[in-house]
Amino acid sequence: MKSIALVEVSHWHAGFYANAFQKAGANIVGVSSTNQGFAEKYAKELSCEYFLDYFSMIEMVKPDFLMAMGKHIDMPDIVKDLLSIGIPFGIEKPIGINARDIEQLAEEATRKGTFIAVPLVNRYSLLWEQLSKLEQAGRVGTRLHSHFRIINGIPQRYEKMNAGWMLHPELSGGGCLRNLGIHAADAFIHFSNSNSFEVIGSTISHRIHNLPVEEMGAALVISDGGIIGTLEAGYSYATREAGGDFEWRVSASNCYLVDRQDTLEITTLDDGMKTTIPNISSAERYEKFGKDTLDRLSSGRKPIASIEECYRAMLLLDDIYAKAVCLNSEKNHSRR
After folding, report:
1. Model confidence at 336: pLDDT above 70
2. pTM of the model
């Protein structure tokens, strides 16, 4: 049984990871947070010790693995510290407020061979497994287009979760595009199997909530292999809760797959078939991350998504931001 410690449990995903690693059979031996109230709360719930800094926690409880969270602006320093300690860890995305923040850290982690798992949890959708099976059977053909949409509730919900810093781009790196869109950026890179892209056009909107972080972002991207990608991210679903509208679509000359979280629709041209199968839900994808990460660590395999892959997704997001038309009101827009 692996011993796990959680860093900065004031993050709204702390409960997801505690549940995921416990279901994976791990023993949570410590939690830390600069917010004592959150540290005490999770320590009580998980029957473990709490600390106000992660250095003390690591020294005292000596965990096998850490799952680190925190403000986006603080996360590069956390990575730097954990790399210097030499402990394997997972870390929330995005890591920093732009790709420059982690470029050298990603290089160092690769050079050292440090195990760093990034929870780009939509890698656990059955879309990728089914696409791989079709590929192995020679039934994909030429990859053509992908459309990745992830829309969640309104941005003010972060204030309710003690994460008001998410509404300040100097701390968060941006709004929905930076926080949610990284899943879409990673999915496009993963589908196109390329690291060279051109952002044809993009736009971000501040029209509804009048906040410094955007509530909607969309981009059209083309890979060097000619694969078209449309990416959408939003804090524009009509709810104050998490979740909303999620849809991953990939198309090729012989297949078309649609991931709607709970279901996966697979259409194939060669046999004229269309099937819908149960998919791994959003909550289950976090649980899968916990088990799969510990399995990969134990067997000496790389994590499903590394800090280097997070860096590449952030590079694509940086370019989308740089080229975006910014909509500030119904009558005013400008390039950033």
Report:
1. no
2. 0.95
Domains of the chain, residue spans: 3-117, 122-282+303-335
335 pLDDT above the threshold of 60? no
Phi, psi of 322 (to 5 degrees): -60, -30
How long is the chain? 336
Cis peptide before 278 (omega within 30 of 0): no
pLDDT number for residue 243: 80
CA 183, 256, 186: angle at the middle one, nearest 5?
Answer: 15
Q: Strand, coil or helix: what is 56?
A: helix
The beta-strand segments (E) located in 33-142 are 49-51, 65-68, 89-91, 116-117
Selection from 51, 70, 113 nearest residue 88 by Cα: 113
**122-282+303-335 maps to CATH 3.30.360.10:** yes
pLDDT at 333 over 80: no
Ramachandran sector of residue 266 (left: φ over 0; alpha: ψ -120 to 50; beta: rest) = beta
3-117: CATH topology: Rossmann fold (3.40.50)
pLDDT in tens, 176-213: 999 999 999 999 999 999 989 999 999 999 999 989 99
Burial 119-143 (b: 16+ CB within 10 A, else e): bbbbbbbbbbebbeebeeeebbbeb
